[in-house]
Design a protein that fits this description.
Blueprint (H helix, E strand, L loop, with lengths): L17 H9 L5 E2 L12 H14 L14 H13 L9 E4 L2 H12 L5 E4 L5 H8 L4 E4 L2 E2 L2 E2 L4 H8 L3 E4 L13 H14 L2 E5 L24 E6 L11 E4 L2 H15 L4 H13 L2 H26 L5 E2 L7 E5 L6 H10 L2 E2 L1 E2 L12 E5 L5 H17 L1
Parallel strand pairs: 1-13, 3-4, 3-7, 7-8, 8-9
Antiparallel strand pairs: 2-10, 5-6, 9-10, 11-12, 12-15, 14-15
Helix pairs in contact: 2-9, 4-5, 4-8, 10-12
Bound molecules: pyridoxal-5'-phosphate.
């Protein structure tokens, strides 16, 4: 008799994640890790958040510790609505649902739209935890052809006819894992195709405020006159991920259903965290803080790029992101990046092998490197070790 518990069918699709296994060893300080998706901790506004927390406890006291509305804290939703206008999306506070990280939005959107075997269109590769999240809904993944500018909208009508997708998931700014940014004309085309075919688009934008080169491009949602685009973002990369606060902007018929799912999931996002964020945002120079993050990440990218150019053997190329936290290396066709990772860990350096970011096959000769979380010294030493291993390969 099989002695294991009778797990739900949805667990059949779930693969253990290489990234989690890697992260277990990379917390050791001797390992130079380009693996995690971590912001630079020295840039967290610790003193400012502490002051905000004190102020909240002094002035809002018990109400900040009480249960609160599932929609989120009203003043924070208003702040986000104003921020959305700045990003080029006309938004009212009523359109903003606060969530426990934008990761929760992936979960809620998956629950709202995906039955078993429903198709999700994604970039190829795409964000690992989005794959995991939609897998819990037993969804099927169909990759959209991508090039150096992201997904190719012209490929969509055929895919839509053939697979009748319920959802398209995209990360237009400094994509995770590739760092690629979708140009404006493709955003316009995507919004137009979504409207024409009645396709729901989930636009995931955790990194849009982290542009250190080039000019901002409005979100796909900016061109969404048909109300087909759900736009998600987060404070994880602009304040701190430990506060676990993200948001989604959705049209009313989607919003009301996401709200029910949110209630069923966790009642509401931490009231205390939301109070602290609101106080922090309204009592500090957030633009100045973002400027520091952009400058540091820009310098770290430039430095990693230079070290890679100086040290990597021929046959390796990589993306040149204009923002965000990651670059994406393509190695020679024969490279097995999982095998390389095992050797790398033995030499105290880590990255994420490409395979985990592909919903189907692919990724063997790719690696994702994070540059935001390492100081220049560690970048130089880490790239040196990695290059030697590639050369020895
Ligand atoms: C593309 C993408 N979406 C969502 C998230 C989740 O972020 P949050 O901390 O808001 O849950 C991340 C985090 O790295 C991400 O890269």
């Amino acid at each position: 008799m099989d002695s294991s518990p009778a797990f739900a069918n949805r667990m059949r699709q779930m693969r253990p994640s290489t990234i989690r296994e890697i992260l277990k060893v990379t917390v050791q300080p001797n390992i130079i890790s380009f693996a995690g998706g971590l912001p630079a901790p020295e840039l967290f506004p610790v003193a400012e958040v502490q002051a905000a927390a004190n102020q909240v406890l002094r002035t809002a006291g018990a109400s900040a510790l009480q249960y609160s509305q599932s929609e989120g804290l009203r003043p924070l939703r208003e702040w986000i609505a104003a921020e959305m206008q700045d990003r080029g999306v006309k938004t009212a506070a009523d359109d903003v649902l606060i969530a426990t990280g934008s990761q929760q939005i992936l979960d809620l959107v998956g629950k709202l739209f995906l039955n078993r075997d429903d198709v999700v269109l994604t970039e190829n590769p795409t964000y690992l935890a989005a794959i995991q999240s939609f897998q819990t809904m037993e969804a099927r993944f169909v990759p959209v052809p991508t090039d150096s500018e992201g997904l190719i909208p012209e490929a969509l009508p055929d895919l839509i006819r053939q697979h009748k997708p319920k959802l398209l998931y995209t990360i237009p700014n400094f994509q995770n894992p590739t760092g690629v940014t979708l140009p404006e004309r493709r955003r316009v085309a995507l919004a137009e195709i979504a409207a024409r075919h009645g396709l729901t688009v989930m636009e995931d934008d955790p990194y849009g405020k982290l542009r250190y080169r080039g000019t901002n491009i409005p979100p796909v949602k900016h061109w969404d006159e048909a109300g087909r685009v759900l736009y998600a973002s987060t404070f994880s990369k602009t304040i701190a991920p430990g506060l676990r606060t993200g948001w989604v902007v959705a049209p009313p018929e989607v919003f009301s259903r996401l709200l029910i799912l949110k209630q069923a999931s966790d009642l509401h996002t931490s009231s205390f965290d939301q109070h602290v964020e609101y106080t922090y945002l309204t009592t500090n120079d957030q633009a100045g803080h973002l400027g520091k993050i952009r400058q540091a990440y820009g310098e770290r990218f430039e430095y990693m790029d230079r070290m890679l150019r100086e040290m990597m053997p021929a046959g390796y190329t990589w993306t040149k992101p204009e923002g965000g936290m990651f670059l994406w290396i393509t190695g020679p066709a024969g490279l097995d990046s999982l095998e390389l990772l095992q050797r790398a860990i033995a030499h105290d350096v880590a990255f994420v092998p490409g395979r985990d970011f592909f919903p189907g096959e692919g990724g063997r000769n790719h690696m994702r490197l994070n540059f935001s979380n390492s100081t220049p010294d560690r970048i130089r030493e880490g790239v040196r070790r990695l290059s030697e291993l590639c050369r020895a390969g």
